Amino acid sequence: MTVTLYDGLRLLPLATASTAVVEGAVIVARDDRIAYVGPREALPDTLENEIAVSQDLGGRLVTPGLIDCHTHLVFGGDRSPEFEMRLEGASYEEISRAGGGIASTVAATRAASEETLVASALRRLDHLLAEGATTVEVKSGYGLDLETERRMLRAARRLGEERGVRIRTTFLGAHALPPGETDKDAHIEAVLAMLPVLAAEGLVDAVDGFCEGIAFSVAQMERVFARATSLGLPVKLHAEQLSNLGGAAMAAGYGAISADHLEYLDEAGVAAMAKAGTVAVLLPGAFYMLRETKLPPLDALRRQGVPLALSTDCNPGTSPLTSLLLTMNMGATLFRMTVAECLAGVTLNAAKALGLGDDLGSIEPGKVCDLAVWDVDHPAELVSRLGFNPLYARLWKGLPQ
Known about the structure:
By secondary structure, this protein is an alpha/beta fold. The chain has 16 helices and 16 strands. The chain has helices spanning 45-48, 80-87, 92-97, 102-111, 114-129, 146-162, 184-200, 218-230, 247-253, 267-276, 284-289, 298-303, 324-335, 339-345, 348-353, 381-384; strands at residues 3-11, 22-23, 25-30, 33-39, 53-64, 66-68, 133-139, 166-174, 206-211, 236-239, 258-261, 279-282, 308-310, 371-374, 391-396, 399-400. Strands 1, 2, 3, 4, 5, 14, 15 and 16 form an 8-stranded mixed sheet that branches.
């Protein structure tokens, strides 16, 4: 057992959505857990006597490690030509119906080996880690058959073996119809068959789906969620991105840990999420890339106390974004979120969106000692600056990385 004292720091604990900086505090970690946070003079003698290592952080700002709670980090191929198509006026739906979008990534992912998927995903992951990420969610959904979905999930698990980072894997078999198929109900049947197999192999931390006109209906997603919950797996949903189908309210009825995108979310959906404690994961990268104009209902979400998270939505087509710092800036500039909301959105509430709020997301005794140390004078710099990475150090489970 190693007990480490971190001194000479300015603390932004983010136990609440606040930018109040605590001066004169220290952090003591016992192995991978935080044992004490508070004034040095109040540190119990018994714990003081256990300290084996001391580190002076030179007056730098310390926050929880950042959490990217919605990514599609593992995929094959490249969809940059679609960017040109959108510049020329093609919509997301038009690209999708023409065989682009998710379908093109499915073809490339099916053709890629596990080694290829790991190698390409590591390049994207390293950008997130360089900006202080300590936990990253990774979805499948570009295989749409058992073999490739399994390969994607295995590749995602391997990212956590190759780097000092916590990886949470999400099965997104209900992402789109496989290329050449037209029967949505038949694919849902295939998803229902895949789910228990992949869960039994220990590859699934949560189950997701895309509930939209170009994807799957509320009734179809209900079937997936019923199977997931029968297996004891938490659920989440891509909902209300392009239209209002009522997916978020349905997901909340299944106790969903998050509903994501939400541009077309209505008051009934907000109320259902608030009642269930479902986190709203906002994805400004996709909003920006698709040049959307319909804003998520921030005022309604705030009014009803729905936790707000932010994520990169890193994916090959609609949000090729690997920066949580830029994501926070987009959340502020595009969605008019406050600095405190943005910072809580990639820490405290992002942890809740993964069902990890008891262990991660804030600097409190008993939580895992995941920390980001920054060369900034004020927390607002982490949100306001563009193309600027002030990370000094990243600690994962109490260890420098």
